[in-house]
């Protein structure tokens, strides 16, 4: 830190992204990316749009916003696109939390939530998950604040049903619930069908996972028009051109390829089931993940040791040195070949530690 760095941020601990090694080709199962490339139509849309890079992007991101509105059966005024869903989550923290409305989120969830709270100097309460890492909605009923729920949750993969979230919306109509559905396309239930009925619901999704566009940075928020207007106030006060031309073009093209992406999501779900079975056979405890990653622990090796041993063998997974979950590793579900390699190496490692 330089001597000039503002005191306002002196205590800020930034988010730690998963490793993106540039030197060696790992089997990368650490950042929940898709193992599948974007569709060819997306690639050519990006190339076409690159010819117009001398022009600023459309501040309203009209084409991709309209395509999203059509895809999800809402009005244009109900959609805001962002530079990844991270940007929109940050806007939601800024918009809906303050001294009297702390952010409420699980003690084990997306690691960026506390960082969004801290950078904006917002109070927050980490609400402990149950012993089995599931979320008890009743824990939130009597707390005051703005609720943030990753559904499915990260890194556990556990999901709440739409009915459970609807109950939360009904019980506390006086506050906003931000539902982060980054991983919803891998088998969980989206609450998007509720946005017209509840003015206290904001849904945030991303193209990074099921639509193979993590490197393009495209997320979207859907809610009632008033909520989207709030977020726009913050967007136009931060970065009016938040989504670049190529990313918008990629998003429009991706929305025309639903079958391709749904097919890929189905393959991920098959590979998830196969890997879950194989891990359980090896004695791992594995959560019932509804996402594109698995969360597993073994009583034969701790999470950090497994992470390191896999890395030495060319496989990257994620380990969180955090209370309650340091025994676990989080493993992105990739292709069947990748998952077979992961299981093979894990089996070898367990044999070695048993010797
Ligand atoms: N929410 C959750 C729960 C995530 O795990 C991630 C991915 N790191 C994001 C949001 C952000 O995704 P992106 O900014 O790539 O849309």
Bound molecules: 4'-deoxy-4'-aminopyridoxal-5'-phosphate
The main sheet comes to: 7 strands, mixed
**Separation of the first and last Cα atoms:** 46 Å
Sequence stretches where pLDDT stays below 50 over 5 or more residues:
none
Q: Give me the strand/helix succession.
A: EHHEHEHEHEHEEEHHHEEHEEH
Question: Which descriptor suits the 3D outline?
Answer: globular
**Domains (count):** 2
Describe the structure in your own words.
The protein is α/β, with parallel strands linked by helices and 355 residues long. It folds into 2 domains: 7-37 and 259-354, Aspartate Aminotransferase, domain 1 (Alpha-Beta Complex); 40-257, Type I PLP-dependent aspartate aminotransferase-like (Major domain) (Aspartate Aminotransferase, domain 2, 3-Layer(aba) Sandwich). The chain is built from 11 helices and 12 strands. The chain has helices at 40-50, 62-71, 84-96, 112-119, 138-141, 162-171, 225-236, 245-255, 258-281, 303-312, 336-354; strands at residues 27-28, 79-82, 103-106, 124-127, 146-150, 177-180, 201-206, 219-223, 285-286, 293-297, 315-316, 328-332. The strands form 3 sheets. A 7-stranded mixed β-sheet has the order 2-8-7-6-5-3-4, with helices on both faces. Strands 9-10-12 form a 3-stranded antiparallel β-sheet. Strands 1-11 form a two-stranded parallel sheet. Helix 6 (162-171) links the parallel strand 5 (146-150) and strand 6. The mean pLDDT is 97. Bound molecules: 4'-deoxy-4'-aminopyridoxal-5'-phosphate (PMP). Residues 84-86, 110, 150, 154, 180, 182, 206, 208, 214, 219 line the site of 4'-deoxy-4'-aminopyridoxal-5'-phosphate.
